[in-house]
Each structure stands twice: as structure tokens, then as C-alpha cells.
Amino acid sequence: MAARSSLTIEDRITIVILMLSPTRQYGDATALAQTYGVSRQALYDLRDQGRPALKTALTPRSGPVATDVTLIVTPERLQRAIVLLTLLGVSERDMCLALTEVLDTSRSLGYVARIIRKAERLAQARNAELTPALSGLLASDELFLHAQPILGSIHPASLYLVSLTLAAQRDGETWGCEFLEHGQADGMISDAGKGLAAGADLAHLPCHVGDWFHPLLLAGLVAAQYERRAYAALAQQYQREEQIWQARTAKRLENHWRKWEAEQAAAAQAIATYDQWRLLRLRLRALAAQFDWTTGCVSNPGRVQADLLALAEELDPWAQGTQAKDLVSLLRHQAQALTAALPLLQQALIPLQQAWGEAATHVVCRLWQALQDWAFPFWTPEQRRQLEHAITESLAWASTHLGAHLEVLQHLVAAILAQWPRTSSAIECLNSLLRPFLNGRKQVAQGFLELFRFYHNTHPFVRGPRLGHSPLELAGGPRIEDPLAFLGLGEKS
Hints:
Helix content: 55-70%
Radius of gyration: 34 Å
Structural class: alpha/beta
Largest sheet: 5 strands, mixed
Number of strands: 5
Oligomer: single chain
Order of helices and strands: HHHHHHEEEHEHEHHHHHHHHHHHHH
Strand content: 5-15%
């Protein structure tokens, strides 16, 4: 009898297929063993080896995969399913249908509502317990559901949701009470809302920083508007020139010529307005830098304030329309707020300067700022040359004096800058996360906001640079492996 190792791979495949065939009859194994000159036990061994190999090779790599797991619907699993469905935006009435279809479990609307109210109470208690020590700025703003304000504050560096409160008003007193109850950081960054500013004053926050996003956005929108106007004026002028060439009478020629002169002047004025606004917009964009392009030092707050006020006066004659006038007004009234974080940023960098030296810290800060601003595509050639010089000079110094430590110092500087952002975009990120839930509801209660806040803070991110970490963990709190079990709903099994 031949040894099993003498079989070729083709023989082995044929034996496995025949041995796994559901139509195999009694005595076929004996005949197969005689054909290949091996024992019957060798055939059964090949069959047992081939079955898992075929299962692994033929299992779909995408799409749903059927499993033979038996699911036992325990009370804990049912509660967890209900809470998770409400966090995914499923209504209570639709949840009864989902439980019947997915878990073959029929529950009343009252039962579902009772579990959700229980989870909301547990979430409120857990949120009161989870208070990590936060440093830097909080981003605050109000969201709206059918004209009812929802006051929110988030820690931009970790995206930890500090508060989410359903309020009757959004005036200074309401915001002041909100800051006194939940404010834990070194200050707050927000847009130019009057209620937010008044609340920050009433709560005596250490620092209230203005948001750079809105002035830069307004400047860009106005520039795009002026550009469209300039092209439209040129198109009208060119159309009039065609009419002049097509004129056949002296009177018609004179009429078109007179209109062409007016349209040429309008086009020249539109182009001049756009060109001037574009240059002033670039100056505003450069003033938003946290570090000086030449030295890498933190920008001087007093000088930046003076430049912003001067820039507002230069923009005023060219301001046409609501958005342009709003920008001028914002720069006049928010110049101090837009620079409020710069002294605190300077203080935050002192330990880094003491550990690594002032020169190294300034070089890394200069490199960070130049790389950030390089991504902006509309700089003038002279400004672009300044940025190129800053990048090449900083890299040359860092390669000589820092070497492999450059990346470490860059991470340390980036961590500090994350604590002192220039914009309140993090609260707008919260709006994008919460808005889908609000749009599907006629009303919302504080309990749901507490549940949303708890799940957001304890649930790990599934993509991006924070992958695998929850906001609570990034803010210095504990890592929670099972948020729903930590909430008090029990383990899954």
C-alpha cells in the first residue's frame, strides 16, 4: 500500500471532494482507497483536513456572513438593544417593530419608554461622576431645536462634551449659570454672540477668546462675491463691444459707445474693488497666525489688535453689502477677543522652552505655522516666498540641532496648540453629530441630551487620528471597555 505523502495535490483535492460528497454511498470509500493505493483511514483524515480548509477559503470576505451562534435574549441584552437603538435615532414606536424582527421579542411601547427613561437617569448620574480635569479652552455655542436653544460646551483637544443643556433662553444670565456649573477649563472660545460674551463676563471666566473662523469666512465670501461681480462687469463690457462692431448707423454707434464708456468704468471699479479686497483679506489671514513667520515667537497681542483695527478702517470704504459690513463691525468690536489667547499660549510654552531651549521651541513653532499657512492657496508671490524661506530655514536648523528629536518636539508643540485653538469649530462638529437626532424629533428632553453626552464621551472613535480612544480617555479620564455596562445596563451575556 502506498504512503499518503505520495499523493499529488490534484489527487488530494479529488479525494476530499468525493469524500465530502453528500451522494457518497456505502463501499465508495473502500473502492477509492483501492484506486489510490492508500488506507481508508487516510481518506477520512484527508476529508477532515479538507473540510475546514474549504470553509476558510470559501467564506465571503465582504457582506453578511451566516453564523451558527445561538442568541439568548436576556433582559440585559434587551435593555442594551433598546438604548443603543435610541442612540442611533430610532423612535420608540419603531423600536417595538425592530425588536420583534431582529430579536423575535415583542415588547410594549410602555416597556420601551420605561427602559429609555431608566437609561437617561443613569446617564445623568454618570455624567456627574465623570469630571476629568481639563486644561486650555472650551468651545461653546448654542444649537436650536424649533427655536429652543440647547447650550453646549466641548473640549476641542479631546472632543469631550462638557455640557449639553436644554434652556429656555440664551442670554447672559443663562450662559453665566452654565459656565459656573460646568466650566472647568482655563477659558472659553466662541463666536461673537452677545449672550455668550455676557455670560463669560458674569461668570468671570479667566479668558474669553474670539473665533477666527467667522471673520476669515466672511472675508472669503465677500472676495468670491466681488470676483463674480468683476467677471460679470467684464462680460457686459465685452458684450457691448460686440454691439459696437455690429452697429450700422451713427446714432446707434454713439448710443452703444456712451454705454460702453459707463460699463468700462464700472468694470474697472469692480476689478479695483476685488483686487483691493483680496490684498486686505490676505493681510487678515496673515494676522490670524499664532506665531510670527520670521522669528517663531508668539504674535504680539497689542500689535495684532492695532493691525486689526487699522485693517477694519481700510476695509470700510470697500465694504459693499451686509457680509462686508458685518466683517468690518466684527473686527472693530472683536479685536481684543481675537488676541485674548496669545498671552496664555505664551505661558503654556514656557515649560517647553525651559526643557528644550527657546531657540528650538521657536524654530518648531515657526515651522508649524509656516506649514499650516502654506496650505492656504491664495497668498501673493512675496508671501509665498516668505513661507518657503521659513520652512527651509527651520528645517535646516532643526536637522542640525535637533535631529531625530524634531518629531518629538513637534508633537509636544501640537499638543499645546490643541489646548488653545483659534476657532470654535469643535462645537460645530458637535452640531453635526447631534443634528440628525434633533431633525427627527418634534421635541427633546434633557434626559436624551444626558444620554447622548454620556455615550459620546465614552464611545471610542472609529476613524481618524483618535481611532480607538474615547473623548473621556483623551481628556484624562478612565478607559471604559463597555459603556452600556458601565452605564448600569449589565453585560451583554
